[in-house]
Write a structure and sequence with these properties.
mainly alpha; 7 helices; DNA-binding; globular; Arc Repressor Mutant, subunit A; homodimer; disordered C terminus
DNA sequence: TCAGATCGTCTGTAACTCAGACTATCTTGC
DNA sequence: GCAAGATAGTCTGAGTTACAGACGATCTGA
């Protein structure tokens, strides 16, 4: 059947071009984002992931390393040295959790918050640059759609990803 | 200034939660996609990237390894052993480019096209699973927006990403 | 024809990921 | 109160991966 079917016909009917593959588009955009973000975040320990840790440490109530690791999608061992670097730079600090002495609560220092404020502004400009091909309304739409997916797609519990801490 | 401003105020005004970070959402969705796709593509050499190579080798005219590498966002040395594996599995084949004897044109074998057809169907189901939190219209919208970005965001030449070969 | 660029390959090094062990601590059941 | 198992964070080591650089073959332009 496959051998007798003309190749051109196959291509059109059963095998879509790679551009229509969600994975390809997702990967291409993600790579572009990381590459651009790394330039802006070069001075921040941990790059884009360090930025996300710092953001999480600043907003909301302090949370444990492991919870944060799950939320950001990094291994717990990676989280250890990610925080090591940020702490060494004086941007975040680990405090023992009074309710559980095994755990450390992560919170940003004043320097960390100041650093985050200016970095977030620069990153926002990078995001706009990346989203430039889209109309303003489309940009907001894309952000919303991605956020909606990201906060629900954890397979085990539907909202694990959504709960920051 | 930073020290005298209440933390809560900082958080609301200048430091958005990580969930509003495009990079976080993009990363979370991308990780989820790769994790799901790898299950379906476990039997295919190279996993998701092998799938994209096979897809590109099937659709359109045959193209060189380097062009394909740029298009898929992988290093040329990675592309070499990626194709090695696919060729060893009998799914693609390298042919010398008659117009440039340095280059190899990549094309899928009949077995490769058959393999791709069934794998693409399975992958499409995975994609729908991942996009499940969205309404049907939103899914198409997200695909379109991502494709629009992916085909235009290459910094050097705006359409380099878009041109498959 | 010659210099420089390019294609694909190979090699080695650097970086990264992740399983597993370990200590300290919490929780549960008795 | 105590023992057994689970969990948080850290550390180590093994395995994988990415990527710079060199290389031969070939193309292109002067």
């Amino acid at each position: 059947m496959w051998l007798s079917t003309p190749a051109r016909y196959d291509a059109v009917v059963t095998t879509p071009a790679v551009e229509s593959d969600l994975g390809w588009a997702l990967g291409a955009v993600f790579r572009g984002y990381v590459r651009s973000a790394e330039k802006v975040l070069a001075h921040l320990p941990g790059g884009p992931r360090g930025f996300q840790v710092l953001t999480s440490a600043t907003t909301g109530e302090p949370c444990s390393q492991q919870t944060l690791a799950r939320h950001l999608g990094v291994d717990k061992t990676v989280m250890t040295y990610l925080i090591d670097d940020l702490e060494r730079a004086g941007l975040v600090e680990r405090r023992p959790d009074p309710a559980d002495r095994r755990a450390r609560l992560l919170s940003a220092t004043a320097a960390g918050r100041a650093h985050l404020a200016e970095t977030a502004a620069a990153l926002r400009r990078v995001e706009d640059e990346i989203l430039a091909p889209l109309a303003p309304a489309e940009r907001d739409l894309l952000r919303d759609l991605l956020r909606k997916l990201a906060t629900r797609q954890e397979p085990g519990s539907p909202c694990e990803f959504a709960s920051p801490c």
